[in-house]
Amino acid sequence: MSLILTEETPPAGYERLIFAEDPEAGLAAYICLHSTVCGPAAGGCRMWNYDSREAARTDVLRLAKGMTAKNAVAGLDLGGGKSVIIGNAKSDKSEALLRAFGRAVHSLKGSYYTAEDVGISPADMQIVAEETPYAVGLDGGDHGSGDPSPFTAEGVFQCLKVGADEVFGSDDLTGRRVLVQGLGHVGMSLAEKLHAAGAKLIASDINEAALDRAQRDLDAEICATDAVFETEMDIFAPCALGGILTSETAAKLTAKLVCGAANNQLAETSVAEDLRARGIRYLPDYVVNAGGIISVASEIHKTGESYRTARMASVAARIREILDLSNTTGKSTTEVADNLVEVILDQTKAAYQEMIA
Ligand code: NAD
Q: What ligand 1 atom has the least distance to the C-alpha of 186?
């Protein structure tokens, strides 16, 4: 019960950065609130074996800022935040640690909602939720939203169809060669939808069991992890790692459309321009993968199915809007999406100022 909260000075443009420690419980974590302009900050908790406290700090800052963009562009009344627990999720996690983390979240009095991310399961979040009501993504309960992955996959699938319509002149996926990189929670669900829609699947993963399943049940062709950028495909759906699109891989990619769930697919912002110059349509990751946070938002706001359905429909509508703006302005889809985030934040700030004037 020896929680120590240290308020650090965040970089410009960020609201709060808190380092939470509980030596008895083995907790060392950062919680970052990038922006609460659109509402309380929301974003998952990642447990990762960071090399240093500095590495954890860098990651939480990057992730929290990304959540502001994702939540704003999805039209959610939520700001952006994130938390990272320093440690090995397999060997360092304990009930005491999760409870200490829950108390740290609770100390923020609802200005930050946490949920699952890499290394944190719904069962872990259930323990966190025993210390604070600001833990979501729970199984069961009146509004528990459970695993967000099926919603993420559905949003990606809908956006991919919008992208196909734009690039190939039809959203009919019959016979389209789609390479899904990463057949995890989101990737496998997406692969099932693509197979059902008649696409020719190409699957890449380091997990043999997932590949076997895709080959057996979804008639997938298997692609070695190091052969992705040498493979002929119409559409690339990255659902594994971030940073896979570099200037080198973008130069080799055979797809005409990129649409997948992985966060931070572009290793650098400039890769958006490399892709655009090659005539490859890139659908910004934080726009297409918003289904999961929409599902979580329905739990935060304690809303019913209709809220989730309406918001889910707006994911594909937003991608259509971004493609149209990209066509009329000649800007990359990434630049358009980033500009849109700024406009939404500015408008929300202005509306608030007007209300309190
Ligand atoms: P997951 O851990 O369930 O799946 C990841 C898959 O990628 C695993 O099958 C893993 O074996 C595979 N993989 C790892 N390294 C690989 C490599 N080098 N090549 C090919 N495959 C590899 O994760 P997930 O929940 O499905 O999320 C996938 C991505 O989508 C992540 O980047 C995540 O941050 C992002 N995302 C997920 C959600 C969600 O709702 N789960 C929401 C938004 C964004």
A: 26
Residue bearing the CA closest to ligand 1, atom 29: 262
Distance 23 CA to ligand 1 centre (A): 31
Q: What is the mean pLDDT of residues 313-321?
A: 96
Residue type, 238: P
The two tokens of residue 272 are: 């958006």
pLDDT single digits (tens) 4-24: 999 999 999 999 999 999 999
CB 166 within 8 A of CB 143: no
- Ligand 1 center to 328 CA (angstroms): 33
Record the pTM. Answer: 0.92
**Cβ(292) to ligand 1 under 6 A?**
yes
* Marked catalytic residue, from 82, 161, 193, 331: 82
284 lines ligand 1 (CB under 6 A): no
107 C-alpha vs ligand 1 centroid, how far in Å?
31
Q: How far is the CA of 183 from the centre of ligand 1 (A)?
A: 7
Task: Answer yes or no: 82 catalytic.
Answer: yes
The single residue listed with the structure tokens 């940073």 is 243
Return the residue matching tokens 């997932």.
210
Locate all alpha helices (DSSP H) within the chain, ordered by sequence: 53-73, 95-106, 122-129, 149-168, 185-196, 208-218, 247-252, 270-277, 285-288, 291-300, 305-329, 333-356
DSSP 204-247: E-S-HHHHHHHHHHH-PEE--GGGGGGS--SEEEE-S-SS-B-H
Ligand 1: which of 118, 125, 185, 295 to mutate, most ligand atoms within 8 Å of CB? 185
How far apart (Å, rounded) are the C-alpha atoms in residues 110 and 273? Answer: 39
> pLDDT tier at 254 (50, 70, 90 boundaries)?
very high
Output the pLDDT for position 1.
Answer: 63
Are 128 and 98 contacting, i.e. CB atoms less than 8 angstroms apart? yes
